[in-house]
Amino acid sequence: MAQEYPAGEARPRRRGRKLFIGLVVLLLLVAGLLVVADRVAVGVAERAIADRVSQEVTKQNAQAAAPDVEVHGVPFLTQVLDGRYERISIHLRDVQASVEGDAVRLPVLDVDARNVRASLDTLRSGQGDVVADTVNGTGTISYDSLAALLNRPGLTLGEQGGKLAVTAPVDILGAKLTVRGTADVTVADNGAVALRVNNLDAEGLPNLPVARALLNSYAKGISIDIPLPDLPFQLAVRKVQPMPDGLTVTADAKNVPINSAS
Q1: CB contact at 8 A, 170 and 221
Q2: Which of 65, 222, 229, 249 has a CA 20 to 30 Å removed from the CA of 41?
């Protein structure tokens, strides 16, 4: 015969189990609300920083599409309270700036800011600085805008075997020729792109010393230092590399404001 228990003994256990389940559900709801609040706060901060980045770009007489900003690190709210953010990524498109009257276009400029300091009051009021310990940027300069800075009619640039490929029409001793060759590109001490044309040749070039001298003179004429526009966030160019879609520029800076106080 099964042992019987007084009816009242089972009821407290059921009540305790219901209470425990209710508490778990409440905790899950609170956790969910905190996650939602965290993500909402991220969105607010990203929009605030994007607005200030746009102001910074405009201050440097440059133009760009509205920036995309992503604040990394979870949870976000603890970073807000601390006033220090692990990493902020900024994606700028269609950046245009002027160098000696010519427009230089960077289709893409990606900026990665690390260890960013921004107080809660700065984000809320829009006053104050957002300062990063380190900022790294990678952008691509279109070959069309780079060729325009050289100011040689018909000159086209591209990438060939990791080097800068040069193609241009020239008139040598009355002959209309197309010259082709490559150029080495490095960063000059003043931050400009140092372009040094080598291995330049032209099919049908007259086998005369004067013809070769004229070709060498053309190569020398486009072997110059090309100034670049000031990049946002005080970025200093460290490396340039020809790529199929343009000249890739790598830059960095330390202890700089992502935005300046208004």
Answers
A1: no
A2: 65
